[in-house]
Amino acid sequence: MKVGVVNYGMGNLASVVNALEFIGYTVDLIDAPEQVEKHSRLILPGVGAFGKAMNRLRSSALDKAIVNASEQSKTIIGICLGMQLLFSRSSEFGNHEGLNLIAGEVLPFSGETDLRVPHLGWNEARSPEGEFSEFSSDFYFVHSFYCVPTNESDVLFTTNYGFEFCSGAKFGDHIYGLQFHPEKSQQAGLRLLKRLLS
Amino acid sequence: MVKLRLIPVLYIKNGLIVRSERFQEHKIIGNLINEVRRYNQWDIDELVYIDISRERVYDSRRDDHKIKRISSIDEALNLIAKECFMPLTFGGGIRDLPTIKKYLKNGADKVVLNKILHSNKAIAKQAIELFGAQAIVASLDYRVIRGEIVFFVDNGTQALPYSVEEMADFIHDLGCGEVLFTSIDNDGMGGGYDIKSISKMVSLLKIPVVACGGAISAFDFMEAAKVPGISGIAAGNMFHFTENIYPRSKAKLKSKQLHFR
Hints:
- By secondary structure, chain A is an alpha/beta fold.
- Chain A is 25% helix and 35% strand.
- Chain A has a single domain (2-197), classed as Rossmann fold (3-Layer(aba) Sandwich), CATH 3.40.50.880.
- Chain A contains six helices and 13 strands.
- In chain A, the strands form three sheets. In chain A, strands 2-1-3-4-13-12-11 form a seven-stranded mixed β-sheet, sandwiched between helices.
- Chain B has one domain (5-253): Aldolase class I (TIM Barrel, Alpha-Beta Barrel).
- The chains are: A alpha/beta (198), B alpha/beta (261).
- The interface between A and B is medium-sized, with 28 and 29 residues.
């Protein structure tokens, strides 16, 4: 089975690739729109600033290719910054438009909590009810911004960091966003990745 | 809420995993490949590897012909990262930006910087700007001399002229994401953590602090875990010698209502 990992120059892909190979996938690194069309499963990883990431996706026309893939109901999983890019907009260093595959916005932690930012380390992500509740576990987080879906029904996981925030989101049964790093979260992370790709 | 981390620190010397005592004596524990496999299989919060080779020669003394030989630290990192599904920190003897970049690209999530923080601050600063504060761990090795914390570099041989307060300001100013605070005198001695110095360092720093040096039992972890504001507890030697010590320590810590994963 094959999975395409979008390579747009934002952060380290080695961990994601290692994890996907370990759970039995053949990984293609994708940096052009026509490569997106060959895949029915896509991973959008990423670490860094939202605005810069969107500029990179736009300048390589990968943004449109990802939106097209979504319209064809292909599985798309955004991880960390990749999750945030799936949303409508972010207020990180100015206002930026996102891919808008999940309605909602991305906000900074600072101001919302007295706790140390970034939110770094292992923390619990719970899926309230339904088919994902069995995947509730501790996962590894490193982030300073968090997603706020417009529709409550798009929330997949929540986590407490001074307040309850959305640490996982979905749209339909093919778009998923994970704020934590499943590739760095031991068995719990690998198991969840497997489920989302299946 | 974010949980406390229990972190094994493994020392690599010339391609072998070694135990260390006061940063000086190094006894060979085993072949890197076998040890990596063992640690990757445990359900660990985070792993730290420090390369303490001075000669920069690698020979994993293969004891099994099915296991390939390791010829460089890059190869060692690739091997570690391949099946490491937890945060991975890598360091030791880092002197330039390309090395930092290479380690992060090959699967490390963070790099540990020690001497370069002082000898070439500009490089450390550049690394933080390029890769983010979360990727840069400042390693602070210290001794207590006449009741005062004194910091050292070069495997504990060169003293630095900073008080603990000055060091905290220096680290904040530089913008590092985390501190690994290691007692040279407690290293490998099994006398428990230096709670007094750890408490002092944690109270002065606004960033996460991981304390290392002196553990011999889960009781020592418990004592260190009670330091207010501490983020992680690290140990090297003790994880090598006791069967299933990692999961057993975790279970004990959790049974005491300490906030571990």
